[in-house]
């Protein structure tokens, strides 16, 4: 096949419109047809918010959704896949001719909420986008008159994004093996095919001192609160020497029990972020020196415990994001400029780790509100009817991009090439097979 050529589709097409474009239209129609079911799915998750690793009701709602999708038993659903609240649902077209390995496209659903403020990050909409895009691709391929291409649509329910990193558990369990490209989308304030989500390392720091009467025998005490305060200040001083792209933020979780007792115990929680996994250990080392210095100065002992999982930065895949933008524009999505995209505000996500094992796209989408993520106003917006239009439009753009990947072998090659180059840039290639 020559570069740029599309894989031939079975069946006819109207003159002037390529068969692939018609197929994309069909995917969008299928998503519209399922709009009510998809909206109900998202609302059910939204109305009963659950925290990381505890998304039992959302898991039930999603697995039932795929089990009941017509025609009956078309999705092979594995509830409690690798984790209690993760799942996997697979669909393959009937009558695939080729015996070769199918192209496996993954659609990710998140569904955890935040403590106290519910779905303030709109993960109910992420679940809906993932489900909708998968239904769109399935619907389009089912309509092919001839033998379908060897494709497997895989929906992965990935719990615990806000805390813990369920995708990292799933990577370690092999859930992403054999996937060729993965797709998901995250609610935001703007439409961006990519935002530079950064790498993150979390620590819990504990200082152990010695209690004493703060008025009668203060010299007998070893003050753990002082150690925490010094650590906080050490890091604040370090900020002047930090790169502008680094972020350090922390809280004093425990700082004593009563003013007349010299605090014998204190605890801090800190998050460190840097644009890449190359820079993150540099920052972490400097920060740990700050914690140790505070222990030395006060005579406390210190325990520094890293979180179970580091979140990796999200690797860009330009070929994939370009295809997504092209499809999105056809649906009327207005994207922020590439410059704004690359310099935009960002957080961290366990999807970053996914992009180190398989090429993927994690675009952001506007949901009809200017409220900011992680606020009560955003919770309201994520549950509103207005968000539905934007959510389904994003799902359509993802489904259309997936169809490009299926029917343009040249694009898939470029996506794989981008992936390799990014890993090389991160000096990570040796760890990925
Ligand atoms: Zn989120
Ligand atoms: Zn969030």
From TrEMBL:
Q: Tell me one GO biological process term.
A: proteolysis
Family (UniProt):
Belongs to the peptidase M20A family.
Q: Which organism is it from?
A: Panthera pardus (Leopard)
- Function, as annotated: Catalyzes the peptide bond hydrolysis in dipeptides having basic amino acids lysine, ornithine or arginine at C-terminus. Postulated to function in a metabolite repair mechanism by eliminating alternate dipeptide by-products formed during carnosine synthesis.
Q: What is this protein called?
A: Xaa-Arg dipeptidase
Pfam family of the protein (one): M20_dimer
Asked if the record carries the keyword Protease, the reply is yes
Q: Which NCBIfam families match?
A: amidohydrolases
Drop me one GO molecular function for this one.
carboxypeptidase activity
The answer to whether the entry has keyword Hydrolase is yes
What gene, per UniProt, encodes this protein? PM20D2
Catalyzed reaction equations: N(2)-(4-aminobutanoyl)-L-arginine + H2O = 4-aminobutanoate + L-arginine; N(2)-(4-aminobutanoyl)-L-ornithine + H2O = 4-aminobutanoate + L-ornithine; N(2)-(4-aminobutanoyl)-L-lysine + H2O = 4-aminobutanoate + L-lysine; beta-alanyl-L-ornithine + H2O = beta-alanine + L-ornithine
The Peptidase M20 dimerisation domain covers which part of the protein? 205-295
Tell me which UniProt keywords the record has, alphabetically. Answer: Carboxypeptidase, Hydrolase, Protease
Q: Which InterPro entries match?
A: Amidohydrolase (IPR017439), Bact_exopeptidase_dim_dom (IPR036264), Peptidase_M20 (IPR002933), Peptidase_M20/M20A_hydrolases (IPR052030), Peptidase_M20_dimer (IPR011650), Xaa-Arg_dipeptidase (IPR017144)
**Coiled-coil residue spans:** none
């Amino acid at each position: 096949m020559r570069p740029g050529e599309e894989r031939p589709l079975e069946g006819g097409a109207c003159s002037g419109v390529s068969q692939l474009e018609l197929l994309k239209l069909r995917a969008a129609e299928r998503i519209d047809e399922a709009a009510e079911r998809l909206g109900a799915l998202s609302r059910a998750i939204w109305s009963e918010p659950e925290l990381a690793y505890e998304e039992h009701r959302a898991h039930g709602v999603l697995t039932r959704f795929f089990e009941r999708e017509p025609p009956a038993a078309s999705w092979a659903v594995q509830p409690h896949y690798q984790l209690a609240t993760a799942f996997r649902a697979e669909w393959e077209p009937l009558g695939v001719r080729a015996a070769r390995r199918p192209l496996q496209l993954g659609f990710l659903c998140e569904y955890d909420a935040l403590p106290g403020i519910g779905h303030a990050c709109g993960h109910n909409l992420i679940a809906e986008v993932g489900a909708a895009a998968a239904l769109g691709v399935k619907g389009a391929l089912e309509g092919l008159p001839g033998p379908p291409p060897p494709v497997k649509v895989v929906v992965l329910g990935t719990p615990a994004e806000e805390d813990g990193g369920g995708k990292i558990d799933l990577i370690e369990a092999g859930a992403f093996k054999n996937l060729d490209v993965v797709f998901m989308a995250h609610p935001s304030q703007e439409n961006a095919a990519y935002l530079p989500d950064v790498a993150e390392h979390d620590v819990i720091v504990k200082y152990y001192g010695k209690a004493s009467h703060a008025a009668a025998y203060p010299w007998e005490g070893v003050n753990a609160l002082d150690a925490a305060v010094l650590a906080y200040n050490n890091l604040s001083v370090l900020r002047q020497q930090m790169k502008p792209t680094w972020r350090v933020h922390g809280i004093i979780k425990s700082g004593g029990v009563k003013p007349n007792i010299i605090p014998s115990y204190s605890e801090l929680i800190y998050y460190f972020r840097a644009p890449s996994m190359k820079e993150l250990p540099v920052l972490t080392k400097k920060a740990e020196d700050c914690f140790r210095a505070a222990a030395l100065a006060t005579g406390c002992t210190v325990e520094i415990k890293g979180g179970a999982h580091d979140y990796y930065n999200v690797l860009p895949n330009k070929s994939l994001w370009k295809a997504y933008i092209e499809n999105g524009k056809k649906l009327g999505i207005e994207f922020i400029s590439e410059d704004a995209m690359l310099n935009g505000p960002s957080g961290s996500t366990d999807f970053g780790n996914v992009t180190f094992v398989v090429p993927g796209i994690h675009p952001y989408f506007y949901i009809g509100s200017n409220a900011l993520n992680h606020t009560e106003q955003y919770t309201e917006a994520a549950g509103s009817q207005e968000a539905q239009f934007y959510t389904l439009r994003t799902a359509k753009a993802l489904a259309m991009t997936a169809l490009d990947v299926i029917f343009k072998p040249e694009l898939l090659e470029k996506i794989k090439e981008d992936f390799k180059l990014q890993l090389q840039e991160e000096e990570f290639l040796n760890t990925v097979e």
